[in-house]
């Protein structure tokens, strides 16, 4: 495997380096939206402050690809990457490879984070990583088109969304044949697990596996949720939606070619950029609910952990503490719509001015539905892949909802039989 140094994205060389007192820390950053640039900027500020050097490893866009690469690095006990950016569902899977930060970070700092998110980063009493930004699925919509087609508010149910999306799509396609009613993440990867968990949960169909480890997906409400989503394809969503990830959906919405979009909060800042065709015309709302159900948003978010194999652990820990500090999280919230993991910042006037929905949708972020990574432990990735594969079969017409959840239940029981 190429050394991370060969995939260099940023180097901040300082006078201290020539004196031999500086160390080099390699930080793995995501590349979705403005993520890479903001990661570079934060790392550069730390480097200037400390006199150290930072190298940026540009991680793959897709979560599954990133996980595979990280697992290779960690299994090889490679010291190439010092600080990893970890998905909220990875601590149980990768925790043994990371430094326990519980005694390395002052309790006063730990107390500043949302307790639930800090708990999700703790495995068997070990604090695997510090929360950097949190996420929850949101419904973005065109405020101008909502008004144009006679609607006073975004949809509250999935049925309403389909009706509204069709009306707007039919009207807009008279002058724009590529216009879509609704775009989302339909590609068979972790993003589809997030979207589909929202559908299933909002229909009252549970969370795939419950908190005790019991497989719960084989029920009529879960099946109905998947069938409903399949009905959107080639109706209010393009046929190609089954190949979309976050950036594909955002590209279509931001270019003015969709009425509704499911995405993470980062899409807000991108949509308000000067080159966005929908700048000033975007609203954000909770995702719709199924029949008799409640809106559900999948808990996302990323965290920073220090590799056990790092040769510069002290500096790496200092970098993690710096990047997750209130000052840095405030910058990222204002410039990139990245949700802070510190409750105090949701009362900050500058943060709320840049992201009005942070205040109005605060409950969405604090009550988001967790993927079943806790009960399934190191088998979560297998569970997620089985789930997204079953959902993909329904979306592409290879299976119906009831048959898919029945088969999935059997497949998950087999995975559980190998221990979780």
TrEMBL record:
The organism named in the record is Deinococcus gobiensis (strain DSM 21396 / JCM 16679 / CGMCC 1.7299 / I-0)
Q: Which InterPro entries match?
A: SBP (IPR006059)
Q: What is the lineage of its organism?
A: Bacteria, Thermotogati, Deinococcota, Deinococci, Deinococcales
- Please provide the record's keywords in A-Z order: Signal, Transport
Record's protein name: Putative sugar ABC transporter, periplasmic component
Question: Do you know which Pfam families this protein is assigned to?
Answer: SBP_bac_1
Q: Which stretch is the leader sequence? A: 1-22
GO terms of molecular function: maltose binding
Q: Does the keyword Phosphoprotein apply?
A: no
